[in-house]
Amino acid sequence: MLETVRGVLIPPPSALVKNPMVSLTNDNAKTASVLAMTGDAGGGSGDGGPVDGGGALRREDGDGGAPDEASRLVIVVDDDRSIVEGLALLLEAWGYDVLTALSLSELAQRLPQAPGRPGLVLADHFLPAGGTGAQAVEMVRAHVGGPVPALILTGDTMPERQAEAAAMGCRLLHKPVQIGPLKDMVDALMSGAG
Fold it and tell me: Could you tell me the sign of the dihedral formed by the alpha carbons of 168, 170, 171, 174, in that order?
């Protein structure tokens, strides 16, 4: 059964684990570019609630055996609220902490609230006001004063997108993104194997 949260149809957590063709849609039936994914949900979902309307920080209390908090933090930047909320739900279900932003300006406001060093930036290529995911990655890296792994999501399949990502040391996934490859890449980048 699907639940509607602020206009986004959310499948039950079990569907995110078991169904290889799950998708999130908003009330206008626009398919969120994120889903149609598979994968093991892993470590729990924190408070289980959606990202608030302002892109609030979502944190999960780790157990004693978990890696340090900063290494579990994923920064998500996308101008589509349904995608941000869907990604936040998935990442939290996989055991990651999430800080979200809908634009570069919102990212600049939220970065000082980050509870430590981000372990990954996950950003859409095209952002509002002519911004790009590459700029989001640069902003996070400048904020922490060093390298941070990054994954750019885009529906643009031009070879230039891959070259731009590679030049910045980022990985790239084309939309629509499938959950299995997304989870594999996130886990690899967060573990340093990516």
Answer: negative
Question: CA separation (Å) from 108 to 75, 111, 137, 140, 144?
Answer: 12, 6, 11, 9, 12
pLDDT at residue 72 in the model: 92
Place of tokens 């997108």: 161
Structural domains of the chain, ranges and CATH numbers in brackets: 3-191 (3.40.50.2300)
Percent helix, strand, coil in the chain, to 5, is 35, 20, 45
DSSP secondary structure code for residue 52 in this structure: P
Say if residue 115 is preceded by a cis peptide, omega within 30 of 0.
no
Residues of the chain with pLDDT under 50: 1-9, 14, 16-70
> What's the pLDDT at 115?
82
**CA–CA distance, 77 with 153 (Å, rounded to integer):** 10
Instruction: Using only the alpha carbons of the chain, give its radius of gyration.
Output: 15
